[in-house]
Amino acid sequence: MFYGGGHESSHHPQNSRSTTKFLLQTTRETCEILAKWQKLFVKQLMKMMGKRTLLLMFVRTKLKHLQNCKRNFEGYSGKMEVAGALSIFQRSQSLTMFGYTKYLGAWDSKAFTSIVENNVYGDHCSVEKLGNA
């Protein structure tokens, strides 16, 4: 799923804490692309936990979030998904010297097309679409 960044990538042993943190962060960033499914997830949580409990948790989280929140995008939601996906793919290489080689997203998403057209990792690595989620 990832390609190495050359000699520098050897500084991340297979089971090190930094590798684990990296994989957790990568997973979180990947989930950002799939934000469309968030509503379904919240509905399932409401069924399991009850509406009151979930709303209380949401309010607490929202208050913490608002302290550090700022607008970082302007435009329609489809364009935001594309910009977010591009940002995640570009950031993966600049921060960690690793990149994604596979993409899993919604069938109607323009994010994958944008990643390919922008040639995010140059000519030495291509990104493959895994299918339709």
Write up this protein.
It is globular and about 50 Å long. It has 133 residues and is mainly alpha-helical. The chain is 55% helix and 10% strand. Residues 1-13 have low confidence and may be disordered. The protein contains 5 helices and 4 strands. The protein has helices at residues 17-33, 38-49, 51-67, 77-96, 111-117, and strands spanning 2-3, 99-100, 102-105, 128-132.
As laid out across the biggest beta sheet, the strand order is 1-2
**Morphology call:** globular
Helicity level: 40-55%
Count, helices: 5
- SSE ordering: EHHHHEEHE
Q: Quick one: biggest sheet?
A: 2 strands, antiparallel
Number of strands: 4
Flag low-confidence runs: 1-13
Radius of gyration: 17 Å
The helix/strand class is mainly alpha
Can you give the mean pLDDT?
Answer: 72
- Whole-Å distance between the termini? 17 Å
Strand content bin: 5-15%
Organism: Trichonephila inaurata madagascariensis
Domain Mutator-like transposase: 67-130
Protein name: Mutator-like transposase domain-containing protein
InterPro entries: Mutator_transp_dom
Q: Can you summarize this structure?
A:
The chain is mostly helical and 133 residues long.
Looking at this protein, list some descriptive labels.
about 130 residues, single chain, globular, mainly alpha, Mutator-like transposase domain-containing protein, Mutator_transp_dom
